[in-house]
Here is the input.
Amino acid sequence: MDTPEPNLVAGRSCDGCTLCCKLLNVRTLNKPRLVWCPDCAIGVGCRVYETRPRECIEFYCLYRISPELEEAWKPSVSKMLLNFASAAKQVNVHTDPDFPGMWQREPYYRQIKDMATHLLQRQSHLIVWEGDDLIAILPDRDVRLGDARHKNIVVSARLVNGQVE
Here is the structure.
């Protein structure tokens, strides 16, 4: 029997969720973002689980590793997948284009704003990926950054006395 990863939230699994197989790119497979992986049995799991690429083996969404996230954040429920990009020091909220605007609905939007405030205090930030559009989430506003294809986007802000600068 496989031993669970020590950083995973007890009782949480990917069962019934395959949203990462659609929303994320997989370089090893040349699978672009927003396209279902050909090896995915949608809503069931990976058809080549035992031989899947290392980047799939090593990936866990924040729902699986962050006990602070409620059950409503399971990607198959929320239609959003959250991950932390350590190199960019950002939390990404990848949204399913078949459910536009889910990130702006409650309870999600309030929690996204709270996360953005928390991250900004730690010199990090939160980006919503809505299709190819990027939106930087700040405590007091949402800033549309435009089309993400073939661009490097840098977001920088800080909180001073509760105000974003």
Remarks:
- The chain is about 20% helix and 20% strand.
- The chain has a mean pLDDT of 87.
- Residues 51 and 107 are 37 Å apart (CA to CA).
